[in-house]
Specification:
It holds the Pfam family NTP_transf_3. By secondary structure, this protein is α/β, with parallel strands linked by helices. Helix content is 32%, strand content 21%. The chain is built from 6 helices and 8 strands; from the N terminus they run βββαβαβαββααβα.
């Protein structure tokens, strides 16, 4: 089963104060770190919500669900069965992430943006986005009966320069 990895990088980074994807950690951008962490779990990786990457669906500003819809749309058109999504600030991932989340649909309970989403849910997600209903990740997960997976992994969540500095020291 082919998996498309999707780095969700279209947020405004208001709390962070600058483009979070380009923030430096250990001499590399957060985007580079996430790409390296996600690639072993997928057949291909795309960046969503940035120039040169995949666009959010149906338009920017729809939050993580718009990014996941854009990734699922691309996955469907290129013959992938599912999308593994991660936020651009999650520079570390569990080594067994794909196994933890299989079978799809499933997400990490501690960070619902980290999820495995089958292409088959694209229609349901598009309907939700078009209605501009509750656009929370957990609302979508409930709607498609996705499993919330518990694990000991605590995903990094970088919302400020202080968070980035703490991560650099860990």
């Amino acid at each position: 089963m082919r998996t498309l990895g999707a780095i969700l990088a279209g947020g405004a980074s208001r709390r962070f104060g600058s483009d979070k994807a380009l923030a430096m950690l250990g001499g590399r951008t957060l985007l580079d770190h996430v790409l390296a962490a996600l690639a072993p779990h997928c057949d291909a990786v795309v960046v969503v919500g940035r120039a040169g990457g995949i666009a959010d669906w149906p338009r920017p500003g729809m939050g993580p669900l718009g990014a996941i819809a854009g990734a699922l749309d691309r996955a469907a058109s290129e013959g992938f069965a599912q999308v593994l999504s991660v936020p651009v600030d999650c520079v570390r991932l569990p080594g067994d992430l794909a196994a933890l989340l299989s079978p799809a649909p499933a997400f990490l309970d501690s960070q619902p943006v980290i999820g495995l989403w089958p292409v088959a849910v694209l229609g349901e997600l598009k309907a939700m986005l078009e209605a501009e209903d509750d656009l929370a990740m957990r609302a979508f997960a409930r709607r498609i009966a996705a499993r919330a997976v518990q694990c000991d992994f605590a995903p990094p969540n970088i919302n400020s320069l202080a968070d980035l500095e703490r991560l650099a020291k860990s």
